[in-house]
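User: Hi! I'm working on a homework problem where we have to compare a predicted structure to a textbook description. Could you give me the structure for the chain below?
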Amino acid sequence: MQVSVASRLQHTQEYYFSQKLREIDGLNKAGKQIINLGIGSPDMPPHPNVVAALTRAAELPNTHAYQSYKGVPALRQAMAGWYQRQYGVALDPEAEILPLLGSKEGIIHVSMTFLEAGDEVLIPNPGYPAYRAAAHLSGATPLDYDLTAENNWLPDLEALGQRDLSRVKLMWVNYPHMPTGTAADAAFFTKLVAFATAHNILLVHDNPYSFILNTEQPQSLLAVPGAREVVLELNSLSKSHNMAGWRVGLLAGRADLLQEVLRFKSNLDSGMFLPVQLAAVEALNLDETWYQELNAHYRARRELVFELLDTIGCSYDRNQVGLFVWAPIPAGYADGYALSDELLYNASVFITPGGIFGSNGNNFIRVSLCQTKEVLQAALGRIKQAQQLSASAAD
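Assistant: Happy to help. Predicted structure tokens:
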């Protein structure tokens, strides 16, 4: 018997990293021992108090039942307190916060709630591939908007406003930006809210990187006057608290819009495991020492990544924020894929080609900071050794 695949999947490919990890696994089984500098999965543990809170709650006999789709009040209150302290944004924990099983899941929740065939959605190029996939799955049509180095990886809102936006219902934005590490300031956020208001577009701000290597006050798009009318914001504990596998995210914004997302979510998944919720409360109440120590590790690692990029011959902006370093490829390579493959097959080091994030990333690579200094030093040594062997072979 043959079963046809739903048409909604015709434009949706397997996630790049899912494919690449299988290839890397095959190379490892062949004895290559690949150093993976591709994926931004934090390698450090959460704070010990967070793990202890999980353990205490899991040992109780009454914490293993199904949970509310909205999360327990303690979690929503902790999320509201976090937003007030860190972003200066006051949220009603009862109505303006919806806990999620990770913010990636929230991307599909939002898309399936508000988009359908005939709608258009603005997608950053380069940007997180999940935005495009979610648009296709919802039946909507994705429209790229360009981000370029010449415009500091910010959209040209004036040029964008000249396009036919009559069918655009939603626009994805993400600052600090992944993959380029660009931070946006309050002035740009104000322009962005004004743009969305003028064109009747729902802005969805994906905001998981605001604490990583950011020397400025963390920014929330919801802090802009008037933003509540046109903005929903996704956030996550994955990067800020080393809890990627725990799947703790949130959606914040207008109560009526969140209620509609909850209507979809309640038919798709379930409530978060209660011990994870209680551990998340502990994480959200950590003081500034946690973020300072986390960033000290990432700063030291970033210096090694800069050295690695110098060795390859890449230039880069030292003021990037987030879990990655974004860099244009040196002359002599067709694109980032070519450089990535050369390093993978010749030096057994995997670095992400920028083209997976959109055509504007074709001539770039992205290096993750989610490896120890020792692993980064080993990757640097392998690349230098591969270069020496290549030079010897050329003589």
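For your comparison, note the following. The first helix runs from residue 16 to 29. The radius of gyration is 22 Å. Good luck with the assignment!
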